[in-house]
Amino acid sequence: MKAVYKVIDNQGRIVIPKEIRDKLHINQGDIVEIKIEKEKIKIEKLDITQLNNDSIESFINTMIASAKKMDRESLLRIMGRLFENFKDIEFKEGNHE
């Protein structure tokens, strides 16, 4: 594949070209790890099993990544079960987006 050149926007973002995303099976909602190795930026798609973080954000990302792999009927069934199990629970106040 030929080199691709991108301009970083004023918020430090770049767009990964569709050709690269398609080749590496990177889709909207996928989780990527960004790190520096040998003075170079490395971006790698992660499988949800690679996430070891106990944070709420990590849990939410894992759930979203898992849900993306389900058919609509299965996802709706799980959402219904979650609602039934938690409808009577009083939750703590907090920022749980």
Structure notes:
By secondary structure, the protein is α+β, with helices and mostly antiparallel strands. About 35% of the residues lie in helices and about 10% in strands. The chain has 3 helices and 2 strands. The chain has helices at about 20-25, 55-70, 70-85; strands spanning about 30-35, 40-45. It has a two-stranded antiparallel ribbon with strand order 1-2. The longest helix is centred in the C-terminal third of the chain and has 15 residues, at about 70-85. The radius of gyration is 18 Å and the shape is elongated. About 0% of the residues are buried. The model has no long low-confidence stretch (mean pLDDT about 85).
Using only CA atoms, what is the Rg? 18 Å
Count of helical regions: 3
In whole angstroms, the N-to-C terminal distance is 39 Å
- Catalogue the unreliable spans: none
Q: Beta-sheet strand percentage?
A: 5-15%
Morphology call: elongated
Mean pLDDT comes to: 83
> What is the share of helical residues?
25-40%
Helix/strand class: alpha+beta
Strand order of the largest sheet: 1-2
Q: What order do the SSEs take from the amino end to the carboxyl end, as H and E? A: HEEHH
Number of strands: 2
